[in-house]
Design brief:
homodimer; about 575 residues; alpha/beta; Gyrase A, domain 2; Rossmann fold; 4 domains; 7-stranded parallel beta sheet; 23 strands
Chain lengths: ~575, ~575
């Protein structure tokens, strides 16, 4: 028997099969006598490439489209391959018989008759059918855990808007994990009940944080996956905002972790306002984005691991590295204006602002920052590098010549909407012989003028210099402090200060949550759910002690798209 | 005297004036009787806007171009304004007389006759003249500290290439600071001599780190500013590479800090190879970029402050949180391949790679990462999210169905260029009942096959799960370890491991430094320098005890561009 292996395949056109069925068919084929390998896939281009890479595609052309089932067998002989292929249908039958059990409803509606207290429907059918199943669940007044991927963005937006109007949640699409009322949905880790609520647009990100907390013997109140696109500009964070509002009201939740890819800027700001509004310590991790410090009770962290560490420390109040003297700025004062002579110092401030506030303008370019149209006039939050080329033509650098900065300081201070002025003082050889001597009187006057006008002008200065510098850093700092400025010696400190003050600036009122609030009962144990799609998700609900019913779901018209369209239209016209 | 203030101005067309002269003229005018405010600027559009913002521009049109001097005066009366303007020329004369001293050479060449041991020329003349002065300095065999901004990129490239050929340095353009052989150039802080060498494309970034080190009682060997554009793709890091090579040879330098905006990817990799080659502990901060861990002796840090802290710890060898069992991969094995079921886990790995190695491919999109053209075949470094939509059509998620992953693992392991395989195992409800049971035998076989072929296949696995999960995380980890895999429980740990191994993969040999090495004498004390431009930079050289000569520089043809062009052509044709 030293013959070459033969590769043969078969096609089942346009039929729907559960992924578990396909996996089991592949395994069964591979164990048949004389069979070396087998592949069972929907014949998408990617899947065909994968079969080919495994040496499972014969040379000849195979007529099969993305909705057709392609079964490939590599065997020791023509006879063994033929025998294997001949058994496909009986193997599919066997599988069906095995899954037989008491009674399985064939529709969501009948499943809900069987388990009316089910508040959740888990949907893991193929993407092209998923939105319609989820929509049906919403119409039946149920929350949706939408595991399915390949769901168009427009359908996600439509589902989430509908859910918001009805006080329901749609977690997903492409939501891999959640822990609701102590019960895990989809892929979820076993944890003890506790006080930490998680909201995450990243499935494995959520799992990593949950596992980390459990590893530190901390429990979870709710872990709410929202799907990777929830914080996009299109979806606008609908589910994230509902979830924050829910955790705000949830008495079991004492601290919150929020995880997402860096969201659209306007979505991020809305989210952070809502996080504030929870009044609960919240740690935010925007995946891959640098941390930006603290905004009142909202902390930004720098990794998945540190998110867990930080929220524990934050909850226990161990984190209080900031002096506690909040400023209550009068309404109307709201802008930060930075007048820097060091470009890098300006940039370090600039890269924290766009995630927190808007609009931000500058003469430096940075993502999320608008170019300042008129360099002589600030608007909104403005951070200026006065040492940039356009300011230094025929003029000394602002580390030497303070004329431009003093004029600008006066101008910004006179703007009644300005709350916080940021300045830098760079000491050393080559620089001005006494920067504080120039700046301190101007700061003092500006603060006094603001006070006389019923405002509070806060001024923060970072001094970069050594105690050996000719200007004497300590004396410079003392002079600046006497003028009423807050003074620090690293830009990191200045950034923290700025973020803290931004939290105190009275912004626009937080807009009320649109739609109806999700009732707490939606996430309270005991959990009961209907499962549509992957049977293993039903199994894991049961193994966790939740009540569940599995729907023996088949696609409309057996997966025939044309027929399904006709059926859907008939249904609508009823 | 309750009359309205009057604003008047004067123009001096096409003349060159030193910025210090202009600042002093402005101050002198402002102190004249009856004068309320004064402004003296080159009449660029930006400067005109600034005058206008200060209420110093009269309503009428003023005919003045960017190369003309514009003098504006706001006074209590017409008479006071007129008198002030009438004094402009005499004030300019007074200033000139005041600066008179023993003897001032009028050219670089004659200055060098006066101070032939000067190895440096500080250039701070206006941008349009700066490249030509720097070029002259290079022709005279001197290193250049090029403070001037507004120098075109093409001229920077030409200067730096010329310098490299001659074993000279060009720091800048737009280089604000340097400490060479203990003497500060431009804006520089006073520090004690020490063992830390700094290379920085950011002026105030360099100053902040230097001040931080001094604040911790640590000294500086050399602090080499390189200009903000040195690490751009166009310049290619010419000066940074020269500086690294110089600090490598400098016996006083024991540890290095390298600061820059995130550079072009190919430049970053070259730089990091050279940093390796120094054999000295090096801390890298790419401004605003997240840290990516450690690559042998090169550490990436997350802020200016932490750069200083890290380099101190690194130098004293306190940082050794990594087990010391390096793998010596045979030549030819060089790629990392990641086969992930968790998208976020894949992404966390992906966001560290492009700064370190290339090419990197993936089915996820990330800056600096190429889309993988054929999803069935990896190339270069490839990180795959096997749970992405394109892999899950009609197929179970790879957390449940390991078929695809096992096939791919075999395929990657058979590639003789693969050194390191990365895998994740996500436990919990819904996931595979025994992932380690599927993966461990495959890992063992792959490692054995590689060994039989004279290769080393390293496999690293991150396990995400809790000890309460049905699969029992501890048992899973034990099984995986038995297969010879390295196992960790957080993706941060997996990333550190990967970065460490990348440092051990024998890459292409580090290309030799182009051009001639810069002799150590260039940066050794005692420092002597010629100053062309801002007189205050000369003053600070002298006040630091360095020998210096100031050139009484005037632009060619008194600033007349046309005439300057004719002169330059005449010079060339000699």
């Amino acid at each position: 028997m030293s013959a070459e292996p033969v590769t043969r395949c078969a096609v089942r056109a346009g039929a729907y099969y559960d992924s578990v069925v396909l996996m089991q068919l592949q395994r069964a084929l591979a164990t048949l006598p004389g069979v070396l390998d087998a592949g069972v896939v929907m014949a998408t281009p990617a899947n065909r490439d994968l079969l080919e890479a495994s040496g499972l595609l014969p040379g000849s052309e195979i007529a099969a489209g993305p909705n057709d089932l392609l079964i490939a067998v590599k065997a020791e002989s023509e006879a063994a391959a033929g025998e294997a292929l001949a058994r496909i249908d009986s193997l599919l039958q066997v599988r069906r018989a095995e899954t037989g059990q008491d009674f399985r409803p064939r529709s969501l509606a009948s499943a809900l008759k069987q388990l009316p207290e089910a508040r959740w429907v888990l949907v893991s059918v193929p993407g092209r059918y998923a939105a319609s199943v989820a929509d049906e669940a919403l119409d039946l007044g149920r929350n949706v855990f939408l595991y399915s991927d390949n769901v168009p963005l427009s359908e996600e937006v439509a589902l989430k808007r509908k859910a918001r109007e009805r006080g329901l949640l749609v977690l997903g699409p492409d939501c891999g994990t959640a822990i609701i009322g102590g019960t895990g949905f989809g892929f979820s880790n076993r944890v003890q009940p506790g006080e930490y609520g998680i909201i995450s647009a990243s499935g494995t990100g959520l799992q990593e944080v949950v596992c980390f907390l459990q590893g530190k013997n901390q429990g979870i109140s709710q872990a709410i996956g929202i799907g990777g696109r929830d914080l996009s500009a299109e979806v606008g964070g609908i589910t994230a905002l509902q979830a924050l509002d829910l955790l705000r009201r949830d008495p079991k939740t004492e601290a919150i972790v929020l995880i997402s890819k860096p969201p659209a800027s306007e979505v991020a700001q809305r989210l952070i306002s809502f996080a504030h509004a929870t009044g609960k310590p919240t740690v935010v991790y925007f995946l891959g984005a640098p941390p930006v410090g603290r905004l009142q009770e909202v902390w930004f962290t720098r990794s998945l691991d540190s998110a867990a560490d930080d929220v524990i420390e934050l909850r226990y109040g161990k984190r209080s590295d900031w002096e506690d003297w909040p400023i209550h700025f009068p309404a109307g004062q709201r802008w930060v204006r930075g007048l820097f002579s060091g470009g890098t110092l300006a940039l370090e401030v600039l890269r924290t602002l766009p995630a927190l506030v808007s609009p931000v303008f500058s003469n430096l370019s940075y993502p999320g920052v608008h170019p300042l149209p008129d360099s002589a006039h600030s608007q909104g939050h403005t951070i200026l590098d006065l040492g940039a080329d356009e300011y230094t033509v025929g003029r000394l650098h602002p580390m030497i010549d303070f004329d431009l900065r003093l004029r600008r300081l006066k101008q910004e201070a006179a703007d009644p909407e300005v709350a916080l002025l940021l300045l830098d003082v760079v000491l050393g050889d080559g620089a001005h012989a006494d920067p504080a001597g120039e700046l301190a009187p101007a700061i003092e006057r500006a603060k006094a003028d603001a006070k006389a006008a019923g405002r509070i002008l806060d001024v923060a200065v970072v001094v970069v210099g050594t105690d050996l510098d000719p200007q004497d850093a300590k004396r410079q700092i003392a002079t600046l402090k006497q003028s009423g400025a807050w003074v620090c010696r690293t830009v990191a400190h200045l950034v923290s200060y700025t973020v803290q003050r931004l939290g105190e600036i009275r912004g626009d009122e937080i807009p009320p949550l649109e739609g109806r609030p999700v009732p707490l009962a939606a996430v309270s144990p005991p959990v009961a759910a209907i499962n549509v799609g992957l049977e293993s998700f039903y199994d894991s609900l049961i193994s966790q002690g939740a009540r569940a019913v599995h729907v023996d779901w088949k696609p409309p018209a057996g997966g025939n798209e044309k027929m399904a369209g006709i059926l859907a239209r008939m249904k609508r016209s009823r």
